[in-house]
Specification:
The protein is an alpha+beta fold. The chain has two domains: 1-64 and 300-362, Hypothetical Oxidoreductase Yiak, Chain: A, domain 1 (Orthogonal Bundle), CATH 1.10.1530.10; 72-185 and 229-282, Ribosomal Protein S8, Chain: A, domain 1 (2-Layer Sandwich). The chain is 40% helix and 17% strand. The protein is built from eleven helices and eleven strands. The protein has helices at residues 12-25, 30-45, 56-64, 93-111, 127-135, 189-198, 233-246, 286-301, 317-329, 335-348, 353-361, and strands spanning 7-10, 75-80, 83-87, 113-121, 139-145, 167-171, 178-182, 207-209, 225-227, 271-279, 331-334. β3 (83-87), α4 and β4 form a beta-alpha-beta unit.
Length: 362
Amino acid sequence: MKDNDSSVEIAAEAARRFATDALVKVGLPAADASEVAALMIEADLAGASAHGIFRLKQYVHRLKLGAINPHPMIKVTKTAPGTAIVDGDNGMGHIVVARAVETAIEQARQTGVAWVGVHNSNHAGAAGTYATLVAERGMVGIYSAVASANHMGVWGGSEPLLGTNPLAIAIPSEKWPVVLDIATSIVSYGTIKSYRLKGRPLPDNWMIGVEDGSPITDPVHSNEGLLLPFGGYKGAGLALVLGLLAGSLNRAPFGRGVVDFNAHPERVCDTGQFLIALDVARFRPLSEFVRSVATTLEDFRNSARLPGYGAIRLPGDQRHYRRQAQIQNGLLLSSELTEQLDVLANELEIRPLQECIAAIRA
C-alpha cells in the first residue's frame, strides 16, 4: 500500500476563516459558525487532527442534507442545584457542548460540583477540548460522549454495539493543564479515516475482521471489521459504562440505537454527552493547588527513565508543545486533505484555503 504522507503548513487563522465561511454557506449563523470553526481548529492545534478541519466536509454534508439543525433552540433545564440537562435541538455538537460547559461552570461556582447531561446533540469533535475549557476556568473538567458510530464489540462479541466512547479529564496546573484525552478503543475511528485518506497501512493490533478475528491492516476494508478496545476487556467495559452515563442516563441512544453518522449522513443522531465541573477552591485555594500539581509533575518529568526513552511523557505536555508550535508555524495538514478542502471550496463557491491564507498575510 502506498503511504501518501506529504503535508503542508497552514496558518491556524486561515483554516478557521475557511471553516467559518463553509459553515455559513450551508446555513449556520455567523457567530455559531465562528465558534464551531474555532473549536474545530483548537482540536487541530492540540494534535487531535482526526477531529479538526478534517471533519469539515462531513459536517457540511450533514448540514446540507438537513441532518443537523443550523438554528437550534438549545434548552437548559436545571434539575437540581448541581445538575442540569441540555437539549441541543439537533444543533451542531460544538455549540451544544459549549453550552453544557458554561452551564456546568456556572452551577459548580454555586454548588462545588456540577454534572450536566446532554441529548439531541451531534458529534462535537475532540473530547479534550471541552474538559480543557473547564480547567482554564480553575476547575477540574470531565467529559464523555456516546461516539457517533459503533466500531467496537462488547468483550467477546462480534457485533458493533459499542462506540469508541471517549473520556477526557483536565486538571488545572501552574503552566498548562493536565489533559488526559483517550478513546476507549486503541485508536479513534477518525484516526482510521485519516490513515485511509493518506493511504497508510494500519498496525495489526488496531482492527480485526468480524468473521475470523484476523487483523485488518488495509484501511480500505475498515468497514468490514471492529476496532479493538485498549486494555482488552477493561477498555470494552469502560466504553460500556461511559455509554450508559452519556446515553442512557440522558435519554439518548446507546448500543443498537446509535446512528452511524458516517454511513447515514442524512439521519439525525441524537448524540448523548455529559460534562462534569469540579470547583478546586472547595477543597483548597486554587493557587495552592496548581503549585502543588506543578511541583509533582516536575518531579515526575525529572524521574529516572527506562532505557530507550528520551523523555517522560505526561498527559497534556505534548498537547501544549504541539499547540505552541502550530500557532507559530501553522497547522500541519496532509496534502490530500488540503486538496479535499479545495474541492469543497469550489462546490460551495467560497474562498479557497489559499485565498484565506493570503487574506491574513495582507
